[in-house]
């Protein structure tokens, strides 16, 4: 393997002052493989059909106006402080925004007049996040709850929608909350609301409209639910086969015997972990719930090796999947669909200021119907630096790492964005190694000269442009994951028209 980071990085520290001279874009061949009709066909392979679900137009992240703004031309939009908006795109010092209530007008608003609304629902006692239907029913039917008790959870089938679960006459009823094309919330298409809170408040005061009363939120405290014991005895798990080896240890397919389910287990050596950070970090990771993040299920931290137990994804890592016969024949639209899911999961981490540090195809897992989930988020922080950066037997992720992080350990959401650009390269090249044949030192020297990875064969021009945006020299000029998700989603929707 290449020179390890410890030997090559210190002598390159002086490169930082000249790391971005004359940054240049390589020539971009316009080459798309989606066909004249611009509609990706399902692919027949030895393992069956690869199909992509029809896309739903996902609402753009919710924003709010910080100040009143009076339009001065027909292109601008008048907004009042507190107005809920969806931001369609950024245009210089302005954003093109659309109102979510009232006139539903759109127009330009100064960018510094709007702000993203993060963790919008966390403050509500009725919001339980990513729990399933069965768990919701168990909670609501507990003795401390009565008719009228309810909670709101993320939809199991639609990650950008929600479900009201309400108890009435000793039973639990479920109502799907859908999203309109502009991001409004509705149960009935006759009534829509700018926020989820407004919808719940309405049905609490108008029970006949829903058919069941909404009274008090579910009595069981979410904090108690979230802190259920998750340290499990090692004997509960039966290992079956080794799925792969990553930077942080081996991954095995296993059966969780007491839960009667298949799981994946990542094994770590205790000597490789920062013990003072381990439990705190894994507890923090377990509190994250999103359909595009691998869910942590349990931990075996007593004895060797440490088990980190997660849900099992049937097709394994994206890196292995891209190298498979099935992965090699994926169309651009399939890959864009998968990339959009990764960006969606990373946007959730971005909102919570969580830095992945090792975003790459090997840490994306794939299930049926090309469902993708981000794995190993935050794990780099609990691994000893000597293991993460200096082991000669480990493929150091320099080629996925932003220069400011590789040289000076300045990890941030924006260094993750750089890594996402490299991940897109892996995907569009159907698994090609970035900077193939180059050592870590040579990679950093290439970046110092202004070089960027060339466009993969058959990569659409607009996707390569997104890669280049992710590799902007200045971290602050790289797009957000919310913007990347929106762009990829829009491109995918356009391919299917």
Automatic annotation (TrEMBL):
Q: What class of enzyme is it?
A: transferase
Domain of life assignment: Eukaryota
What range(s) does the SH2 domain occupy?
A: 126-218
**CC terms in the record's Gene Ontology section:** cytoplasm
Q: What is the lineage of its organism?
A: Eukaryota, Metazoa, Chordata, Craniata, Vertebrata
Where in this chain does the record put each Protein kinase domain?
237-488
Record flagged with keyword Coiled coil = no
State the name under which the record lists this protein: Tyrosine-protein kinase
User: What gene does the UniProt entry assign to this protein?
Assistant: srms
What keywords does the record list, in alphabetical order? ATP-binding, Kinase, Lipoprotein, Myristate, Nucleotide-binding, SH2 domain, SH3 domain, Transferase, Tyrosine-protein kinase
Q: One GO molecular function term?
A: non-membrane spanning protein tyrosine kinase activity
Would the keyword NAD turn up in this protein's UniProt record? Answer: no
Q: Name one Pfam family in it.
A: SH2
EC identifiers of the protein: 2.7.10.2
Span of domain SH3: 58-119
Annotated ATP binding sites: 266
Gene3D superfamilies associated with the record: SH2 domain, SH3 Domains, Transferase(Phosphotransferase) domain 1
- Annotated catalysed reactions: L-tyrosyl-[protein] + ATP = O-phospho-L-tyrosyl-[protein] + ADP + H(+)
């Amino acid at each position: 393997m290449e020179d390890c980071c410890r030997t090559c990085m210190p002598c390159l520290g002086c490169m930082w002052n000249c790391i971005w001279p004359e940054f240049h874009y390589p020539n971009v061949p316009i080459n798309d493989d989606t066909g004249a009709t611009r509609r990706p066909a399902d692919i027949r392979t030895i393992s069956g059909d690869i199909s992509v679900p029809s896309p739903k137009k996902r609402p753009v992240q919710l924003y709010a106006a910080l100040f009143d703004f009076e339009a001065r031309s027909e292109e601008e939009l008048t907004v009042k402080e507190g107005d809920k908006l969806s931001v369609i795109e950024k245009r210089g010092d302005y954003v093109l925004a659309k109102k979510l209530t009232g006139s539903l007008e759109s127009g330009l608003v100064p960018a510094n007049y709007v702000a993203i609304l993060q963790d919008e629902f966390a403050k509500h006692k009725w919001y339980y996040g990513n729990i399933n239907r069965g768990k919701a029913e168990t909670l609501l039917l507990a003795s401390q709850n009565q008719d009228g008790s309810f909670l709101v959870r993320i939809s199991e089938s639609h990650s950008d929608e929600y479900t009201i679960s309400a108890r009435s006459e000793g039973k639990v009823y479920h109502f799907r909350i859908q999203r309109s094309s502009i991001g409004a919330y509705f149960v009935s298409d006759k009534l829509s609301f700018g926020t989820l809170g407004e919808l719940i408040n309405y049905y609490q005061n108008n029970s006949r409209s829903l058919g069941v009363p909404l009274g008090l939120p579910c009595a069981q405290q979410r904090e108690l639910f979230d802190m259920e014991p998750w340290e499990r005895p090692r004997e509960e798990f039966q290992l079956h086969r080794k799925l792969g080896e990553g930077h942080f240890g081996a991954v095995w397919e296993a059966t969780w015997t007491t839960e009667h389910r298949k799981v994946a287990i990542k094994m770590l050596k205790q000597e490789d972990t920062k013990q003072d950070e381990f439990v705190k970090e894994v507890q923090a990771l377990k509190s994250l719930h999103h359909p595009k993040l691998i869910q942590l299920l349990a931990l075996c931290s007593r004895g060797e090796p440490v088990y980190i137990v997660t849900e099992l994804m049937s097709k394994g890592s994206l890196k292995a999947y891209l190298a498979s016969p099935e992965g090699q024949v994926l169309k651009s639209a399939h890959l864009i669909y998968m990339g959009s899911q990764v960006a969606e999961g990373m946007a959730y981490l971005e909102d919570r200021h969580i830095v992945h540090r090792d975003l790459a195809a090997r840490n994306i897992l794939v299930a049926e119907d090309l469902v993708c989930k981000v794995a190993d988020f935050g794990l780099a922080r609990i691994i000893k630096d000597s293991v993460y950066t200096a082991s000669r037997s480990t493929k150091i992720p320099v080629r996925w790492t932003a220069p400011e992080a590789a040289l000076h350990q300045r990890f941030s959401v924006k260094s993750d964005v750089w890594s996402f650009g490299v991940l897109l390269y892996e995907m569009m090249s159907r698994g090609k190694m970035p900077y193939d044949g180059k050592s870590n030192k040579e990679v950093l020297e290439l970046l110092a000269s202004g070089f960027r990875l060339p466009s993969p064969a058959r990569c659409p021009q607009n996707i390569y442009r997104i890669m280049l945006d992710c590799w902007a020299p200045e971290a602050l000029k790289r797009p957000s994951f919310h913007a990347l998700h929106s762009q990829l989603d829009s491109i995918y929707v356009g391919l299917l028209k």
